[in-house]
Design goal:
The protein is of the alpha/beta class and 427 residues long. It is built from 18 helices and twelve strands.
Length: 427
């Protein structure tokens, strides 16, 4: 029972801000305030956010168009570029992107929302940096916290005057803490918690992760190459690895991003793996999220192969994002391999889930890919035209079993629990 709830604020911009908010929603009695679509939002604010989102999604999809599309995307991406971490230097100078957001905040962006929810007894917790700007600018009376949703963060995530700011940050790793110190933030405002993952996929003592990892290691290492080489390590982590569900096919989940980018990759995987799917050797989840046009696209691709949805392939779709997140969390429990661009889903590797990485979309995803590779939990996708050759080799080698264990060992899975402890809420 929560005695002291939070005001939980996210942005409806793809899935990256709302997914971590959903993992924390039990702290807000299930309510997630959407800063660009809250009840009573002013017409001009709504128009501002709609135009911003449309521009982002359009440019994200343009990236796949040679030359012109890539050029337009590169210009947008430059505004949110993350600088190289080394050498250590002062990066506190505000960016053009920040000045742009603050110019609208000074005109009243978000002011009405802060007036509506201001409560000294309720911490303001947001997964969107602009919402943190707004809360501070309009003097929200309670504590202000911002959850960083990528493995590194651009200067835009820190406020205009970081040394004077009272915003606190929940950070996914130590690297981001170094980054925020370079941006000029006070160390007392920085908490390395890990990314907030769904508690129903973790367990207070990681018991849910370990249960899934038992199954995955066996599925991902059918010739026991990894298990024999690291037998002591495997036994110390999950001593009950066995063949109890050997009759079930290997399950791959391919997830499309919130802007609908890379749906063609999912279709290509479906076509190339169709023979194994029909033989019940592989089960493929195609994640359409809450986008009906992606669902319909996948449906037509499945139909063209004479494969029935639900028999070897499942389209993961829900009418709302909240319903989609809950459905996705359940699907992940039965997933052996997650195939996705390196979005916020990169942090799901902490669930002992190996990730095949498709092409990054944007500077932050380049850094997420780098992080996945550095912790050993990710493997770059090779040419999908030859997946029938390289994918079996990847399984036989035990490489993905190693990625599953490396993610479990090297990525923080207790982010939600750690955030709860810092907020000091009664559970």
């Amino acid at each position: 029972m929560i005695n002291n709830e939070i005001n939980l604020v996210a942005a409806d911009m793809g899935y990256g801000h709302q997914r971590p908010a959903q993992a924390l929603s039990h702290l807000s009695n299930g309510e997630v305030i959407i800063i660009n679509d809250y009840q009573g939002i002013l017409a001009w604010e709504k128009k501002y956010w709609i135009n911003s989102l449309r521009s982002y999604e359009k440019i994200s999809r343009l990236k796949k168009i040679p030359i012109l599309g890539q050029l337009v995307f590169a210009v947008m991406d430059a505004f949110q570029k993350i600088e190289a971490l080394y050498p250590y230097r002062d990066l506190s100078k505000p960016t053009t992107q920040q000045k742009y957001f603050y110019s609208f905040i000074k005109k009243g962006l978000g002011e009405e929302l802060i007036k509506k929810i201001d409560d000294i007894n309720k911490p303001f917790v947001t997964t969107f940096f602009v919402a943190a700007y707004i809360a501070e600018y309009y003097n929200y009376s309670g504590e202000i916290y911002c959850v960083v949703c990528d493995s590194d963060a651009s200067r835009a995530w820190a406020p205009l005057k970081p040394a004077e700011s009272r915003i606190n940050y929940f950070l996914p790793n130590e690297k981001v803490k170094k980054r925020f110190l370079m941006y000029g933030m006070n160390e007392k405002n920085l908490f390395v918690t890990g990314f907030p993952l769904p508690k129903g996929n973790v367990g207070e003592d990681k018991e849910i992760i370990k249960s899934s990892l038992v199954r995955r290691i066996f599925k991902l290492d059918p010739e026991s190459k990894y298990q024999k080489k690291y037998q002591k390590l495997v036994n110390s982590l999950v001593p009950n690895v066995n063949a109890s569900d050997n009759n079930k096919p290997l399950t791959i989940t391919f997830a499309v991003g919130g802007a609908g980018a890379q749906k063609e990759i999912g279709a290509k995987i479906l076509h190339e793996l169709a023979p194994q799917i029909k033989k019940n050797e592989i089960f493929l989840n195609l994640v359409a999220g809450s986008r009906p046009e992606i669902r319909d696209y996948f449906f037509e691709e499945i139909k063209s192969l004479n494969i029935e949805d639900g028999k070897g392939v499942k389209i993961v779709f829900a009418d709302t994002k909240t319903s989609y997140f809950l459905l996705f969390n359940e699907i992940i429990k039965e997933t052996d391999i997650l195939w996705t661009k390196p979005s916020e889903l990169s942090f799901f590797c902490a669930l002992g889930l190996p990730i095949i990485i498709s092409d990054p979309v944007g500077s932050q995803e380049d850094f997420n890919r780098e992080w996945l590779l550095s912790v050993g939990a990710g493997v770059d996708s090779l040419d999908i035209d030859y997946i029938s050759e390289w994918f079996p080799d990847l399984i036989k080698s035990g490489r993905l079993a190693r990625a599953a264990v490396d993610g479990f060992l090297n990525a923080e899975s207790q982010g939600t629990y750690n955030i709860e402890k810092i907020l000091k809420l009664d559970k």
